[in-house]
Amino acid sequence: MVDGKPGPTVKTVKDVIKVYPLAWPGDRDNMRFLNYSGIAHNTIHANTIDFYREVHEVISEEPASAFSPELLGLLVAIGIEKGSRFEPNDQLRTKLIESAACCTAIE
User: What is the chain's Cα-based Rg?
Assistant: First the structure.
């Protein structure tokens, strides 16, 4: 903040920070910043089977190199794998539902 105003800092960040996929080297000069100020976002994960669907979505969209082999191995054990559908059988689904609900009960 400069004199209580974020403007100068925001300008510096926009001038200095460059975030882009490494696969798009030609687009490095086309940084685009989106202003989400004042828009509500839910950043709390689900405490239902949907939590595991969210994890599957992330694994499916991100490169495998973004995760450790150990983590990917654990996720495969519960049916979460890049390139595969997440369709747990009834027994696993019950366990995952119990697991997600258990995490919210801990205080």
Answer: 20
First-to-last CA distance in the chain? 36
Residue 54 CA to residue 69 CA, distance in Å, equals 19
User: What number of other Cβ atoms are within 10 A of residue 9's Cβ?
Assistant: 11
Range of the domain at 76: 50-105
Model pTM score: 0.63
Number of neighbouring beta carbons within 10 Å of residue 48: 13
Q: What is the pLDDT of residues 55-106, one digit of tens each?
A: 999 999 999 899 999 999 999 999 999 999 999 999 999 999 998 887 655 4
CATH of the domain at 94: 1.10.3360.10
DSSP letter, residue 95: H
Q: Report whether 95 contacts 51 (CB < 8 A).
A: no
User: Structural domain tally of the chain?
Assistant: 1
Asked whether residue 70 is assigned to any structural domain, the reply reads yes
Which residues, including other chains, have CB under 8 Å from residue 75's CB and lie 6 or more apart? 55, 59, 81
